[in-house]
Amino acid sequence: MDVRLVKVRISRWRGLLKTFRWKRLTIEWKVRAQNVLLDFKEYVVGFVQTDRAESHRMPREESAVQMQIRSLRETFFVAVASGSGCYIHVVENTARNVKNAAQKKSGIKGEGALNKLAALFEIEEEDMYVRAEKVADAVLADLYLPEYEKMKLVKKMAYAPRYENWEKLGILPGGAKSEVCHGVVKCSTNLNSDPVDMLKDCLKLGISTGIYGLTLTNLLNDIVLGEPKLRLAPVGLRVIDPDYINIMITGHQHSMFTYLQERLTDADITEKAKQAGAKGFKLVGCTCVGQDLQLRGAHYEDVFDGHAGNNYTSEAILATGAIDAVISEFNCTLPGIEPICDELKIKQLCIDSVAKKANAELEEFDFENREQVTEEIIDKVLLSYKERRGADCASEERVELNLMEEHGNERTLTGVSEGSLKEFLGGNWKPLVDLIVSGDIKGVAGVVGCSNLTAGGHDVLTVELTKELIARDIIVLTAGCSSGGIENCGLMTPEAAQFAGPKLRAVCEKLGIPPVLNFGPCLAIGRLEIVATELAETIGVDLPQLPLVLSAAQWLEEQALADGCFGLALGLPLHLGLPPFVTGSGAAVKILTEDMKELTGGQVIINPDAKESADILEKIILEKRDALHI
Q1: Which of 183, 223, 545, 627 is the 20 to 30 Å CA partner of 146?
Q2: Number of H helices and number of E strands within the chain?
Q3: Do 209 and 150 touch, CB atoms closer than 8 A?
Q4: Strands of the sheet with 361-362, listed across from one edge
Q5: pLDDT tens-digit profile of 340-357?
Q6: What is the mean pLDDT of residues 491-497?
Q7: DSSP characters for 360-376?
Q8: Residue 431 and residue 427: Cα distance in Å, rounded?
Q9: How far apart are CA 140 and CA 143, in angstroms?
Q10: How would you classify the pairing of strands 245-250 and 325-328?
Q11: pTM
């Protein structure tokens, strides 16, 4: 391939991308820019692979095989390891925050959640704070084990039939942090070239991700942040109140915001805001940490405005002009927000160095320095407000507001968790099981994960698939950025029952619930696993036998692939709107789409069309119902 030609093509793409830089933030322009980027990446990858093949002077067939293995190892496997590492980072920080709170003998808001975990871990201590510290220590001890030593809590947390399956397959994970390191090592050039072995490691990473990074992060957060409570709440850009100093929060580590949330409502801080011309401070939810705050919103109504939107909505949230600062601590904080923040004079702060943005100031959170860091953050946010729209801000310096007060709705059901839903049903799962057995609810679909700009555009496939599923009497449970798009479209309001099939609609109208139940952030995929496990226990079957399917229709982040590996390890069918990084390996594709059914019970389904995907998922649900004779 002529290098001069490549340079000409790259120059052309660079020119095309420049045209998108200052375009209005519409779905049309986002999709067009994304298509140019994808075209560019595909061309460069093709050039690199061709160049390598020619330079190695290998026979064509051998070169193709090598490229297939390299594609699997250097894209999919490394992405799963990276995604798992992200979640393990989150649960590690969360466990440390629980431990520190226990040592300070303060900040325990969910004693019920603490008692559940203590009983599960067989920890018996009279003192609540000693119990909390030992629970946190048990989690941290497992995370820090070597790769060759199996984690102890897996057996306590996992559904027994699943544990037996994992043990039989040899995919029980060792220490979670060591497993990530082990996976990264295997991804290095000229090391692992066995697709079966690599995919087994992906399942191990999926298990440690699911049990620790997802399920235990939620339950530990319940201890220090309070357990979710059902309530109706506003969502969308309408939640932004320009009379307040507004802080948009992004990331996944809610326990890092605990002290800030409480400090913002103190009388002296509110007085500072009033002197600057505002009524006080408010947090505006964005991405998964916003979903988690919304989930627990009943505990924070005085400081939380509401959840405005998911990852790609963050640009529109900032474009309203009413956001005075962004505080981020993890993804999905898009780098695309940086020029918008600069243009609108929005202060960017980061409290975890792993998520440091080029234009953000680092105010690294540590439990010991939380008071100092919090005061510094508040002072910087206050100054940002004063300089861009405070009472003394000159008119020529004042930022113009472009509010969207009609966006979203006022009646989204939130606070749904394995605990609050069971309580709503009377303290057990029998009412839900009865509805499934009778066919009033045909099955359950977990629509989870990210949003992206492909697969139809921002949230398009996710929302359309959800509509198709509920129209077939399949109740939908959501977790992740997908929740943000679905709730903003009104499908999580009780009135959305009108879009459901006749049987599901009757159930929803009788119970006063929507056909789509929002479990919150992507971390809440762990809560969906608890629901699925308890349903299986109630019926007396293994997870793969349930009329239950998963879809991460518009996955984006590496974490989504680690989530998907957890779903496959649980034995669940997993739909993706776009293929993961495995299509270069025929062996990997066959294992994931066909052979996995014989190994764990799971399978990967790839389809970008909402109706066709719903048809496939409905067929799987009907087959599982037939097998259960219901």
Answers
A1: 223
A2: 27, 14
A3: no
A4: 361-362, 347-350, 325-328, 245-250, 281-286, 304-309, 231-235, 409-414
A5: 999 999 999 999 999 999
A6: 98
A7: PEE----GGGHHHHHHH
A8: 10
A9: 5
A10: parallel
A11: 0.90
